[in-house]
Amino acid sequence: MRQAVTDTMDPMWVRACLIGLATLFLAVLLFVPLAGVFLFAFSAGADVFLRAVSNAETLHAAWLTFLAVAVCIPLNVCFGVAAAWAITRFEFRGKALLVTLIEVPLAVSPVVAGLMVMLVYGHQGLLGPILAEYDVKVVFSLPSILIATTFVTFPLIARELIPLMRLQGGHEEAAALTLGASPWRMFFMVTLPKIRWGLLYGIILCAARAMGEFGAVSVVSGHIRGRTNTLPLHVEILYNEYQFAAAFAVASLLALSALVWLTLKSVLELRTQ
Amino acid sequence: MSIVLDQISKRFGSHSVVQRVSLEIASGELFVLLGGSGSGKSTLLRIIAGLLSPNEGRVAIGGVDVTQLPPQKRDVGFVFQNYAVFRHMSVGENIEFGLRVRGVARAQCIERRDELLDLVGLTGLAHRRPHQLSGGQLQRVALARALAYRPTVLLLDEPFGALDLQVRTQLRRSLRSIQDELGITTVLVTHDQEEAFELGDRVGVLYRGGLVEVGDPMSLYHRPHTDHVASFIGGGNVLVGRKVGPLIQLGNVQIPMPQQAKVHQEGAPVRVLFRPEDVTLSDAPPRDAVQLGQGVIVESTFAGSVSRVRVEVEGLRGARSLAPYPTYGQKAPHVEVTFPSAAQMPHLQESRFLSLNRYHVLDPHGLSVLSLVGRHAEVDAALRVGAVVARASHGTLYTFKEAMRGDSERVRKELRLGAEQILPAAQVETIVRDGEVVESFVDEAQRGLYDLAVLGREGDGAFEPQVLRSLSIRLLRMVGIPVVLAHPTTTKIGRMLICTAAGEPGKGDVLFGARLARHFRAHVTVIHVQRFGATPLDVSRAKKHLESAAQSLAAMGIEHEVMVKTGDVAMALRDTVARGKYDLVLFGASGSASRRALLFLEDLIRGANTSVAVIPMMG
């Protein structure tokens, strides 16, 4: 019988079994379904695929999804940097509570997040009467989609930055101040360059999540075709109407964008290492 | 430019880090702040730079009050221990940073940058990235960066702490020569005394947030004023003896009191410092030198340039050793001696004669007060009164409390918090013991470190009266130090009553009372009660005693009055105590009669809101 090479190295058959198991698991749960999406998308021919992705409703859904991403990223960058700065540089009461609260959107189900938006901005909600008075429409329209997406994604950037900034400490910032830099200058010349890779990484996570968000948006958007449908919602509608080829065609767009984000993320990871 | 610190205090939460530090640093001076970890030295430097703002006090740079200015407006150069070089910029960009934020033109930036690279010995490295440099080079970059815009003062926070020995020595030399060349006022923080001596024009020693002593390196080393500096700097021998006439009694050894020593009272503790290199070992008793007698070599170490031995000196038994700190079970004080390692090293257990080439007497310090703290430190009478006495005499309060093993850190913290409401942290020490509290307290008192012991006589969590009585008797008889029975209402000592009635009129109580009264600027009443049927001899002796008491009080500038009453001693005294609103009543008790005296005393002060001091008398 062969002996393990070192104490930490398991025998060959254990390693083979573990790797095999993991591969099988991935194949069943990931590779096959993913391949299935692309296969189904083209099952009725390329022209069906092209028609499905280029019709007005799909284009509008794509536009809406892009808009949600474009709005939620800058908001979350501002919030994430500010929160990480406050948490890593200052001591204040309720700091532990703030750290926990930031995690809330990740912990609660997106459906609940959607309902929370309804509770506040819906017709029966807290702000409903005031919004109605000024004739501002939030739910079942664009603003509610933006709010829901931002809410669901807001922890992602802060969570990337907090450990990073904690690790880096504030010495270089203190040095910049003693060298005569104003606080803004210090931020742009020292802090931002120090955290840029972590920030970019957070942005990618945020974008990927915002594009794919279904639950919260599904509750608040009202599924109005050509008006408040984002790509994931559009896929669901097509699927429920038995337009399988079209549903998978649109789904393949989403899967493709996810792959792009993941590739970018991996490149960044290599780069920061 | 000059730097002036005026009464700077800084707290983090309830934890006091810097306490009332005042300091003037002259223009062009290189000043070193020396202290161990947690002494507050870095905090003080950050306060000068504006990176922290003090809770109290003012900072002035070049005669301008900058207390309210943010760091970027103070025009200081700061060098951090961990370099804090901007990793995403090249060496050149780092150095130009201060110039660029000041809007200096590009060409001038480059010119100045190259000038500074030359100055710190990094010529031609402007385009290197920080990760390509060694620690020593990074610190040179940080120094160049801090000097680029010609700041008014240069502040360095343990700049060489993270570097290895060789690089450190090199950088030290560069810093000294750069500072000489530029003549910039510089403050350097370090825990390394060698560095402090080598670099500092003057050195300030910080201990627990207080500036203990300031002086040039030579006088700090050879003529310190405080035992903290004597033992922190350069491993000295510090022994505590007593003043006896023109001599200092160290155990059985007597050495002359030096001319330049500050005046000590007769019998007061005298702390003698001698450096290891100032002791000579010889085979025969040397003539014309101050002798310490014979000792036995108990330890010897080779340390490169010098050899170091420890000698146990039988003749010094009875003198207390502050440094080197006594090891458990040692019979007599150990004296540390160094000599050039080329010389013949004596063998262990060999006997040698010791003599001193030079020694120094530290300043007499305030009272060392040992307080036994009861259950609740925050309201404890012994702790409060002890702190009040230590504060008035600029002495030290040693708080003593029993605690279970494992709980001692919490108890220490509690003791500190209790005492620091009254005293600066530098004047507070905590002693926490597990085991039988009376026994361990007597043991502690017997170390001979203390001028008086304080016990709480009433109040929340105080000890039982019979425990206090037996403890007091042991302290008076066996240890022979004054015992104060503290009352919780005593917050100051403004009026004092000295009872000279009990037993033979002595003078110990008056002298000790005078010492306390001087610190408090208290009013002193000396009372003597003439018993019915006293003989004329008794009367004349008492009269003489009172006269000399009044004389010595007057000589010390103490406001006083003398009271003579006739009648029943107990009644007369009780009446006086009840009416006089005294904060402290002093009593002399001879060792053999201490039990009777204490019982009498307890009866006397029952119900009176006053603290009591019992002074042990000879005989």
Question: Describe it for me?
Answer:
- The complex is a heterodimer of chains A (273) and B (619).
- With 273 residues, chain A is mainly alpha-helical.
- Chain A has two domains: 1-41, no CATH class; 45-272, MetI-like (MetI-like fold, Orthogonal Bundle), CATH 1.10.3720.10.
- Chain A contains 13 helices and no strands.
- In chain A, helix 2 (46-54) packs across helix 13.
- The radius of gyration of chain A is 23 Å and the shape is globular.
- Chain B has 619 residues and is of the alpha/beta class.
- Chain B folds into four domains: 3-221, Rossmann fold, CATH 3.40.50.300; 234-361, OB fold (Dihydrolipoamide Acetyltransferase, E2P) (Beta Barrel), CATH 2.40.50.100; 368-461, HUPs (Rossmann fold), CATH 3.40.50.620; 495-615, 3-Layer(aba) Sandwich (Rossmann fold).
- Chain B is 31% helix and 31% strand.
- In chain B, the strands form five sheets. Chain B has a ten-stranded mixed beta sheet with strand order 24-23-22-25-26-31-30-27-28-29, with helices on both faces. Chain B has a six-stranded mixed beta sheet with strand order 6-7-8-3-9-10, with helices on both faces. In chain B, strands 11, 12, 13, 14, 18 and 21 form a six-stranded antiparallel beta sheet that branches.
- Chain B is globular and about 105 Å long.
- Chain B starts with a strand and ends with a strand.
- The relative contact order of chain B is 0.07.
- The interface between A and B is medium-sized, with 17 and 27 residues.
